[in-house]
Task: structure prediction
Amino acid sequence: MKTDRDIELSKKKLRKRIISLRDSVSENLRDSRSRIIALKLFEIEYYKNAECILLFYSFGSEISTRSIIDNALSDSKRIMLPRIKDKNIIETYFIANPEKDLQSGYFGIMEPVPERCKKASPKEADLAIIPGVCFDRNLNRLGYGGGFYDRIIPELNKEVLKISLCFDMQVIENVPVSDYDMKIDMIITEKGILIN
Result:
């Protein structure tokens, strides 16, 4: 039986491997795949019917979420993005204009400017787009190790669909999980959709 330490070590190695693999894909190919994934999201009834979406602003070699944010705002959906207040606190804020409402924050990730944005509660979301490093077919998720979304997910209403968007290479056979790790409900990749 694996100890907590063994699981954490496995997670750390897996994060490094998957991020390196994702980083090795050209920006053009990532952009192309990101557009395909975004179009799949836009076709889902949950997205079409959502009025308030918890999203994340992508960084590094993640799937690009900027077009999703822009599309949702142009569809008059309310968008909330997270802001890391310190290593143990994550807050959410509504944004209306990404050009004016965001600034570089934690790890260089674009975050809401608290003085410009209205504070939001995850309970207000009727759809949540959750980031991650990798996932498995049982809808387990491996995040970046800060536990931020493992703390946000329990704050969502229970009926809120939790979707992760990722490249197909990020879906693996088995993600190591701890008791506190939170599952998602759906994964959308450029090759298809996995749902619980």
The domain at 4-195 is CATH 3.40.50.10420 (Rossmann fold). The chain has one domain: 4-195.
